[in-house]
Amino acid sequence: MSGKLFLENLLRYNTACRQLCALCYKEVHRTRRTMLGSPAYCTKLSRFLNTPKWCNETLIMVSISQTRLFSTKLGKGSGKTKIPKPKAKQEKQEVEIKQRMSVAELAQAMNKDVDHVYEALLHTTIDLDSLEPDSLLDEVWIKEAVKKSGMKYKWAKLTEGKVRENKDAVNRPPADPTVLVARPPVVTIMGHVDHGKTTLLDSLRKSQVAAMEAGGITQHIGAFLVQLPSGEKITFLDTPGHAAFSAMRARGAHVTDIVILVVAADDGVMKQTIESIQHAKNAKVPIILAVNKCDKPDADTERVKKELLVHDVVCEEYGGEVQAVHVSALKGDNLKSLAEATVTLAEVLELKADPTGLVEGTVIESRTDKGKGPVTTAIIQRGTLKKGCTLVAGKSWAKVRWMFDENNRAMSEAGPSTPVEIVGWKDVPSAGEEILEVESEQRAREVIEWRKYIEEQEKLKEDQQVIEAKQKEHQESYSKERDSMSHLNWRQRKSAMYRANKQRMAFRPKERMENEQLALPVIIKGDVDGSVEAILNILDSYDADEQCELDIVHFGVGDISENDINLAETFSGVVYGFNVDANKAIQQAAVKKGVQIKLHNIIYKLIDDLKEELSSKLPPTVAENVVGEASVLATFYVTVGKKKLPVAGCRVNKGQLDRKMKFKLIRRGDIIWKGSLTTLKHLKDDVQTVKTGMECGLSMDKDIDFQPGDEVVCYEDTEKQQEICWDPGF
Fold first, then answer.
1. What's the pLDDT tens digit per position in 639-687?
2. Where is the Tr-type G domain (predicted)?
3. C-alpha dihedral over 101, 105, 110, 114, to 10 degrees?
């Protein structure tokens, strides 16, 4: 059957067929599969098409499949050659890139995993060890990775990012003068440690705060409302005078109206006195000088005033504006004059505030109370605080549940200049944070979320600066290394780089082991936020990392918890507590896990303990302890077997020579030998020791040509514990 006739038959049967036959369908498929192109194919197909059972679908399939086959065969018979179509050039994958992309973003744009990006940058100058999935890549490395992956890049279309709306809470505009009312002055008592600040306040309040303080020093900032016999009210802030509490003094100075500078008449101007003066000047707050301890025999008030002239504190007696009051806080002498001076200055300042509207204030101190939860001591500066108010401070917010005064008595409201304890905080806010009232809890959450977002953005910027600095350092190091090998051919350069990398990798485990041994992880817990802040400020001055690294794993407010013990166990650290407790269960868990808990209630004792712990981490130094000294008078040789041994005749000038000890030979100030003795004789007898004034003969474990005048020193090595070189400043 010819190809033309075959096509005609197919078309004819295709138009006439209306019945489906599965049997025919299978047969045609079997025939096409097994006999395609064979000489018997046409006969088989022709016979099959003449059968009464066939279907339209079958014929359509056969016509489509076989028309192509027969057309090809006819083409070959006519002598025409089919030209194969050229293969289309494979298009490179396009990758949309931006000027700065993280490793993970680039991998996602390339539709690859992160490891693919690392492999693409393997033989470049970038430091792969410092790369993380969220590390940002510069434009040059993005292009390099795309190019090495056999792809092409195109710049992503710039889309204008949605600017996040500022949701922060802000202070209200200045109040209308017509609504302002007089308020009590806020007075901060400042000065050097042990100059009588708290005793002075006790005398004014008729209380015994000083008697209850650990170590006789103030270690917290306190806020008290005092009503004088004349009826006037004054809010006093008592700040610590110890060097460790500089931040507390600065915080007190910035929320106060007047500073009472307490200076002991028998001690004069000291370091923290000068610092307190500086805090008052920075806050632009007027000063009243209280010269305390005037009842002491060696009190010299004039010396105090003259010393203050050097620091621009000029008393009225010397033509200045600073009032000076001579008092004795212990005996209560002249306290009325001090109170009158304070009230007079407050009247001159015309202190007023707006008691209406949303509340504004400052966190003086914060802590975690077992029964109340997070508690803050605050000074209200504007508005009137009541129960149910919603407050924000830093990254914490509160729905005010309870308010208490300094005597732990419940309060219903607190107006301007009133110190108050606030209960209801979700977290402990940091001391010094500004308190702002907002309209609702939802608004408070928006403010906190915005502040956390801003903090994250700032942290990202800081991290980016660190990453860029590291990459720049690595690039410079790599360029320097390449320049040093520029005179080598590529094979020599590759070999040298391999040896350098191998040596570098070999030293890494050893360095890591040394760092682990010379590190002290610590966990700090304090009773209030200000105490923790003071300790951390001291630890910020630590500058002995080359001896032992100080690692602050965690810090917080409150008693020592199980989480603190678990952290200490994980990092092999020590838990330090300041004015906090550890219950019996926590102590037992610490003993079981081998964790040290060190509790202190005086800050300088805590720091001393920390210094001792750091020193204990240092390896001991070996010191030579001289036992005896002798001088060589003469030399001679002794024959032992076939060998002549040099022997030194000596006289012991100091101490004694002990054969079991170590020896060294010194000639004209230079040590020419160290070792042990083989023989030590007095006259003809072998002896163990030779004392001062006696003569002896000795030989050493090495052949040394002795000379008269040489010095023989007997010594022993003793281990001495190193001390950390860190000086916290007190």
1. 877 788 889 999 999 999 999 999 999 998 899 999 999 899 988 888 9
2. 182-352
3. 110
